[in-house]
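Below sits the subject:
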Amino acid sequence: MNKEEVLTYLPYTAPFLFVDEILEIDENKVIGSYTFNPSLDFYKGHFKGHPVTPGVILTETMAQIGLVCLGIYLSGNVESGLSRHMMLTSTAIDFIKPVFPGEKVTVHAQKVYFRFKKLNCKVQMLNESGEMVCQGTIAGMVTGKING
């Protein structure tokens, strides 16, 4: 499975899709990027006069790229059929810098393990200057299969 095929299996659409492209993917890691459109609705109220991307959205972006994309890739290469959904089971994220409207971020995820349909990854998000925005661990479970 290639990186373009992985994107076709993502279970999200705008405005809740936080993956623009997968730059690299293999059985141990994924690197992907997303640019936060300044017109996204949550910027209207977070924070008044000084919009910042909410931490929960940064976490979701890391989960979509670092967990779901990698989970789809691994499921498609390990099991018969592809995972339909990955349910987030745990996160531990440290937030270091804010992400502002219009910023492009890159997510790097490294597989810690993938067994018994559970994927655990170390994740980090970098801004365009290569500065760490946030980092931590994220885990999820494959909850279904296409054609199965």
The mean pLDDT is 90. Helices lie at 3-8, 55-78. Residues 55-78 form the longest helix (24 residues). The chain is about 20% helix and 35% strand.
